[in-house]
Amino acid sequence: MLPFFAVLVSRTDEDRRGFETHPKLVDAVAHGMSVERYRALLLELYHVVWHFNPVCAAAAARLGSPAHDPDAALRYFLYEHMHEESGHENWVLNDLEAVGVSRAEARAHPPGAHTLALAGYNHWSAATRQPLSALGMLYALEVISSVYGGPFASAIRESLLLEGEQGVSFINSHASLDSQHMAELRQVLNQVKDEATQEAIVESVQVNFHHLTRILESL
C-alpha cells in the first residue's frame, strides 16, 4: 500500500492543477499584478490567515488526551503549527501598509464570498465533522506557498518596484517556511490510517483548492 501522503497527492492532483494553471495565476507569476489587484489579494489573504489558527484550535480541541489516544501526537502537531503561525496576519497588514492600505482599513474590509465560503467550510468541518480535515487545509495552503510563493513575490516586487521585503514579507517568508512545513506534514499525514479520516482530508484539500482558485479568479 502507498503511504497516505502519496495517495493524497495523487487524488488531489487535478485540483492542484486547476489552481496552478489558472490564467490569472500564470499571469501573476509571470508579470506580477497591478497595485489595485495586489491590494485586493492581500485583503482576502488577511482573512484567510486570520482564520487559520481558530480552525486548527477547533480541530485540536476535538482530538484525544495524551494518556490513551493515538491522536494526541496529531494534536501536538497542530499546537506547534499554531504557535509558528501566530501573529502572521500582522505580516499581511504590514504588506498592506506598504502598498497604501492602512491597518484600520484592512481590518474593516469585509471578506469576499469565496473567502467566507473557505473559512466557513474549514471551521464547520474541523468543529463538527472530522477534526483532522484541518490537515487538508494545511496541505493546500502549504503547497501553494512553498511552490508559488517565491516566484510570485519576485514578480510582485518587480512589477510594483518594491524594495527588499517591503510589501511581500508574508508571501516571500512563507515560500521558505512552508517547504520545511511540508516535510513535517508528510510525516504526520502518513500516520493517518483510518479510511474515513483519510477521505475527510482528501475532501478538505479539494474544497480548499477550489475556493482558493475562486478567490484568485475574482480579483
Describe the structure.
By secondary structure, the protein is mostly helical. It is 78% helix and 0% strand. The longest helix is centred in the N-terminal third of the chain and has 27 residues. The mean pLDDT is 92.
Core attributes:
single chain; 219 residues; mainly alpha; 11 helices
Topology:
Blueprint lengths: L3 H8 L1 H8 L2 H9 L3 H27 L10 H14 L2 H11 L4 H6 L4 H16 L5 H26 L9 H21 L5 H24 L1
Helix pairs in contact: 2-11, 3-9, 4-5, 4-6, 4-8, 8-11, 9-10, 9-11
Class from helix and strand fractions? mainly alpha
Gyration radius from CA atoms, angstroms: 17 Å
Distance between the termini: 42 Å
> If you average the pLDDT, what whole number results?
92
**How many strand units?**
0
Number of continuous helical runs: 11
Order of helices and strands: HHHHHHHHHHH
Described by the principal axes of the CA atoms, the overall outline is: globular
Strand content: under 5%
> Are there runs of 5+ residues with pLDDT below 50, and where?
none
Please estimate the helix content. over 70%
Major sheet: size, sense and barrel closure?
Answer: none
Outline of this structure?
With 219 residues, this protein is mostly helical.
